[in-house]
Amino acid sequence: MKTSALALLSLAGALSAQSPVTFDRILNADKEPQNWLSYSGTTRSQRYSLLTQITPDNAKNLELQWVFQARSLEKYESTPLVVDGVMYTVQNPDDVVALDAATGRVFWTYSYPVSPDARPCCGRLSRGVAILGETLYIGTIDAHVVALDSKTGKPIWDMEVGKAASGYAITHAPQIVKDKVIVGMAGGEYGIRGYILALDAKTGKEAWRFYTIPGPGEPGHESWAGDSWKTGGASVWVTGSYDPDTNLTFWGIGNPGPDWNGDKRAGDNLYSDSVVALDADTGKLKWYYQFSPHDEFDYDSVQVPVLVDTVWQGRPRKLMMWANRNGLFYVLDRVNGQFLMGKPFVKVNWMNGFDERGRPMKLASAASSKEGTLILPGNQGGTNYYNPSYSPRTGLFYIPAWDNYSSLYVKQDQEYVEGRTFGGGGPRPTTSAPVAPGGSNFRSDDDIYGAVRAIDPKTGEKKWEFKMADVTDAGILTTASDVLFSGGREGYFFALDARDGKLLWKASVGGAVRSGPMTYTVNGRQYVAVDAGNSLFVFALRQ
Amino acid sequence: MKLTTVCLFLLASGALLAQHEYAATDIENGGRQYTNNCVYCHGPEGDQIPGINLLQGKFRRTLSDDDIARIIREGIPGTGMPAQNMNEGTARTIVAYLRSSAAAPASTVAGGNAGRGKTIFEGKGGCTACHRAAGAGSRTGPDLSDIGALHRAVDLEQSLIDPGAVVLPQNRFVKVVTKDGTTITGRLMNQDTFTLQLIDSQDRLRSFAIADLRQHSVVTTTSMPSYKDRLNSQELADVVAYLVSLKGARKP
How open is the CA angle B92-B94-B100, to the nearest 5 degrees? Predict the structure, then answer.
């Protein structure tokens, strides 16, 4: 124990030279847990840190170290990066800020001039940046990818990769694979035709493009009636994961459009609400699995794919774990996409089991209607973009969940008009609707609630939950010392014991936590960072 | 002198325009836009955000048509009201819909006299023991100072006759028992995972750490009595007429 701590310290010393972030470092991020080199921490996206200075015993001694108040009133949903003592975060919509990770003092700020054409549906924001070498990458809400010098914030290149006036946008942190920067298009509420593309990290030149809706002649095209594929959405707005053994990059795909009326898009609407596995060098589809065929409930499958190597039913397997917006928890084989298990983790009424190939058996009554259909989970889902976590130590999968939650789905006729929202109706609140943001909470015990829910991924059974009085949009972080960090909409950031959900510590941060917390060390001291409200808060143990 | 006349004329015609001249197609299209874009937060009746009733013209402050159209298009920074990517014309149809809904005659209870109703409200009815209106009465129950701008007469009458039929979440009561055994009942003002806030029967704002409570429960039923047999139909009509007249504080 002592030796490993010493080894860590000496490693930190060696890297204080701030060497370039090679792809090898990103792939082996576990070897330098003092840093956080990509959106989800590692390419496996477990949001599990090997740092152990903060423990269940001493978490009560956590205290605020510094705050970065962003000059933006937009929701702060990003996870920062930390590289050798320097933190990189965003200031919405698309500014990038470099700070001293120990003190919060700003080195530089890059201000991106957003085009007036930008029209992201659900927040003028960015969920974070990526780094490769000494270059940072941000995708912008007007569908550009910009490369910046990580030491100065000066732009290196700026590529327009989508038409903002038609509703294309980028809101997620880019993914780095080898020498490429991979991004996907948001705009599922605007009748876009989604795609994922890889750019050459040095030049910004497009290397490959994968359309999330197959074109004429491609397999899956027949899953869209008529011309509906041209405006079918299938957006991407949360960062994927990468498996070096298979060289596959995995991405969750958003809802089909129009969101709430499937009449004119008869068929399964591939690859909406699916996970796609793409060859990272070519963008070719290796396999896919569709969670919600022909969706009318806005069940984007944009969650982060969590990659886990473990024993499954007696033999070691390369798995993908996924808590989906549609209320079900899934285990897939990530080599070939085979469906291994699917189980509700919250109340679900739109399906009743799976067929032998893993296709959900959707109830005939589970369809949007003119008069409204009551569906659980409701429109924001059983979970959403909120980062889940998997701890190899506890073997548990942790989900930011909304339970007892329903919406009334109403469909309406709608014609496509370029650049305008293309919803075809919409969800109506029921008695079990969340508290309006900023409002007071009057809920009773039977109403909707939010929770950190720990499930055993081998069975899908709930092991424990930490129930909140309001819903949660907060991601989850676990550590090798069995501490779990998360928060919720009511403005607390807290630490739980990852083994049993016991509350260890909490801080009032005065604004909803809508981001995934992360952890790092500088000079041997462990810090935990989280965005809440409009600011970024950093905590460490009292000295 | 002449200038003043012209200004007055313009102001008057402007006011007329603001209130009456909305094209029927705009109102209809606005209704559709409202359903598509606004209902999720504001609700089908426009009253889902406490203190606001979009369909009855009840906003946080007085708003011109221009103000409303701008807020629809640009949102209100720092609140849950997002900017809608919508052109001016479309936003104007929503304004037309909101204004025409607010101008539609609310149902009234025939024969009610607001003056008599006020007397009953403050006297025989005993309403001020829990409710407050126009600066008088207890704050434990919902403050009714602007109830006439928020709800229709028919709904107010329903609440007098059958108060338990609909209890809005913001009017719920809560009962807490402290560790020393003291029971406190009050109107729930807010709560979270660790704390709870209420206003008690002495109008005190009180906040509790849930860890310090022996028990706490949110009451979804009402403590208000039915006035079906306590007041005759004329008295009920009078009270409703008084409630309908309560439109909230006016800005100078």
Answer: 100
Same domain, B12 and B41: yes
> CB contact, 8 Å: A423 with chain B?
yes
> Which strands, in side-by-side order, build the sheet including B213-219?
B205-209, B195-200, B183-191, B173-178, B213-219
By Cβ distance, the residue of A122, A412, A440 closest to B36 is A412
Residue B38 to chain A, least CA–CA distance (Å): 10
| Residue B168: inside a domain | no
**Block residue for tokens 């792809």:** A23
Choosing among B73, B85, B219, which should be mutated to test the A contact, i.e. which has the most A CBs within 10 A?
B85
Instruction: Count how many domains chain B has.
Output: 3
What is the spatial order of strands in the sheet that A483-487 belongs to? Answer: A48-49, A477-479, A483-487, A492-497, A503-508
0.95 exceeded by pTM: no
CATH of the domain at A329: 2.140.10.10
Interface mutation target, options B36, B76, B81, chain A, most CBs of A under 10 Å: B36
Domain membership flag for residue B37: yes
A298 noted as active-site residue:
yes
* Shared domain check, B229 and B126: yes
Assess B39–A contact: CB distance below 8 Å, yes or no: yes
Together in a domain, B21 and B88:
yes
Residues 97-116 of B with CB under 8 A from A: none
Task: Decide if A444 and B220 are in contact by the 8 Å CB cutoff.
Answer: yes
Residue A421 in contact with partner chain B when CB distance is under 8 A? yes
Residue A485: which of A426, A537, A424 has the closest Cα?
Answer: A537
Q: Is residue B91 located within the same domain as residue B123?
A: no
In a domain, residue A526? The reply is no
Q: Is A429 close to B48, i.e. CB distance below 8 A?
A: yes
Whether residue B207 lies inside any domain: the answer is: yes
B40:A425 CB<8 A: no
Name the least confident of A236-240, B12-16, B70-74, B226-230.
B12-16
Residues A76-110 pLDDT 10s: 999 999 999 999 999 999 999 999 999 999 999 99
> Higher confidence at residue B221 or residue B108?
B221
Q: Per residue in A51-81, pLDDT tens?
A: 999 999 999 999 999 999 999 999 999 999 9
Instruction: Work out how many domains chain A is built from and give that number.
Output: 1
Query: Domain range for residue B191?
Result: 173-219
Of A412, A423, A469, the CB nearest to B192: A469
- Contacts of A7-15 with C-beta under 8 Å, sequence gap 24+, read A8/A33, A8/A34, A8/A521, A8/A524, A9/A524, A12/A521, A12/A522, A12/A523, A12/A524, A15/A84
Judge if B154 and B211 occupy the same domain. no
Question: Is A436 part of the contact surface with chain B (CB cutoff 8 Å)?
Answer: yes
Q: Summarize the confidence of residues B74-84 as an average pLDDT.
A: 77
Q: Would residue A104 count as lying in a domain?
A: no
Q: Is residue B240 part of a domain?
A: yes
- The residue type found at A171 is T
Residues B124 and B230 in one domain: yes
3-class DSSP state for residue A328?
Answer: strand
DSSP string, B221-249: S--PPP-TTTS-HHHHHHHHHHHHH---P
Does a structural domain hold residue A179? yes
> Among residues 193-232 of chain B, which lie with CB inside 8 Å of chain A?
193-194, 217-218, 220
Helices B233-245 and B153-161 pack at an angle, to 10 degrees, of: 130
Q: Are residues B82 and B140 in the same domain?
A: no
Yes or no, beta carbons of B189 and A412 under 8 Å apart = no
State the residue range of the domain holding A363.
Answer: 174-384+402-434
